[in-house]
Amino acid sequence: MALQKKKFNTKYGLEINDAYVKIRHIQGNKTNWVISVEVYANKQVADACMESNIGFLEVYNIRVPDIDLEKNIYKQTYDYLKTLDKFNDCIDV
Length: 93
Prior knowledge:
Order of helices and strands: EEEHEHE
Number of strands: 5
Helix content: 10-25%
Number of helices: 2
């Protein structure tokens, strides 16, 4: 599960086409959740870099409200990401 963003602008001013957005970690308890989101140039780079922990363009730590433990946590967090300005036009891949 991941997201793809057609045009992603990094904090360094680079524009990346078809950036690959992946949740790396989810931490929390019933009321307080934080996700670590990594952005890669594309899926191939993400696949190559997942083992080495290098190669990502940017990392975001984002607080996620209202996680329902009875439902898929990853789906909920990816859906939440798509509500944020930085990721609002992402598609599921």
